[in-house]
Amino acid sequence: VIVIFVSNGTLAAGGASAPIDPNWADKNPKKAALMSAAGPLANVALAAIAFGVLCYIGRPDVNNDMTVFAGQTAWLVMLLNLLLATFNLMPLPPFDGAGVVSGLAPAVRHIYYSYQRMPLSFIVSMIGAYYVVSSVLPPLVSAVNQWLPWPYWA
Fold first, then answer.
1. CA angle 133-134-135, nearest 5°?
2. Crossing angle for the helix pair 109-117 and 96-104, nearest 10 degrees?
3. Pairwise CA distance, residues 129 & 98, whole Å
4. What local confidence, expressed as pLDDT, does residue 45 receive?
């Protein structure tokens, strides 16, 4: 908690961040938006691969532990990557969605910079992301589950 408070959230969440130089982002807003979108797009690609595996497996044979295990693993990989993509596309700093929005709409960039300087902005963003993701993810998972040849989540 002390690390989150002292660093305003920049050293939290496992350190999976690839910081972008703000001066470079100001000069190349479209490239900065593309860089910010790379992580969530990778999550969507991994979820699509897991979806393909689930479609290939079809209805797992309950007598074959390997197909059940492969189906459950692919379902978990798909679910976690959908969660990460949804979470990271939030248009609040420090999430990748803020980088995409500020790259595509440079007029809002100063609002994001001001927000990031606020004390505890990371905590506010995390709480907001929790509420948004908890309302967006279940219908998304339900829709994806309906596209599968055999529902993995009842």
1. 90
2. 150
3. 12
4. 96
What's the pLDDT tens digit per position in 7-51?
655 555 554 566 677 788 888 888 989 998 998 999 999 999 999
Q: Which amino acid is at 87?
A: F
Provide the token pair at 108.
């809002």
Taken as a whole, the chain contains a residue count of: 154
Task: Locate 83 and state its tokens.
Answer: 């969660």
Category of 92 on φ-ψ map: left (φ > 0), alpha (ψ -120 to 50) or beta: beta
pTM over 0.85? The answer is no
Among left, alpha and beta (phi > 0; psi -120 to 50; other), residue 151 is: beta
How far is 105 from 93, CA to CA, in rounded Å? 15
